[in-house]
Specification:
By secondary structure, the protein is an alpha+beta fold. It has one domain (3-78). The protein contains three helices and six strands, in the order E-E-H-E-H-E-E-E-H. It has helices at residues 17-20, 32-39, 69-78; strands at 3-6, 13-15, 29-30, 45-49, 56-58, 64-65. The strands form two sheets. A four-stranded antiparallel beta sheet has the order 2-1-4-5. It has a two-stranded antiparallel ribbon with strand order 3-6. Strand 4 and strand 5 form a beta hairpin. The longest helix is centred in the last third of the chain and has 10 residues, at 69-78. The radius of gyration is 17 Å and the shape is globular.
Length: 89
């Protein structure tokens, strides 16, 4: 998950991914308050990369739960329905 901080008077988004990546887990609720605590930053706003659209979006003020549906969808898509034991994908 990519997380960025936007500071006043700056057009640059500071990448904070490495600061939070090791502490974020699936099922965890992440809020802007938590991001400020974890990074020590108090930016004007936060950004994140939407895993479905791959678009940079404003982090919602209400926060959100990190879900694992994307990796589950990829895993399910890679499971073959072919029962032939010699079948290779």
């Amino acid at each position: 998950m990519w997380i960025g901080a936007v500071f006043p008077d700056s057009d640059t988004v500071v990448d904070c991914t490495n600061m939070v990546d090791k502490t974020i887990t699936y099922g965890m609720f992440v809020s802007t308050d938590w991001l400020e605590f974890a990074t020590g930053y108090a930016p004007q706003s936060w950004k994140y990369l939407d895993s479905k659209s791959l678009e940079e979006k404003d982090f919602p003020s209400s926060g959100f739960i990190i879900d694992d549906s994307d990796s589950e969808e990829l895993e399910n898509a890679s499971i073959s329905t072919n029962s032939d034991p010699d079948h290779i994908e």
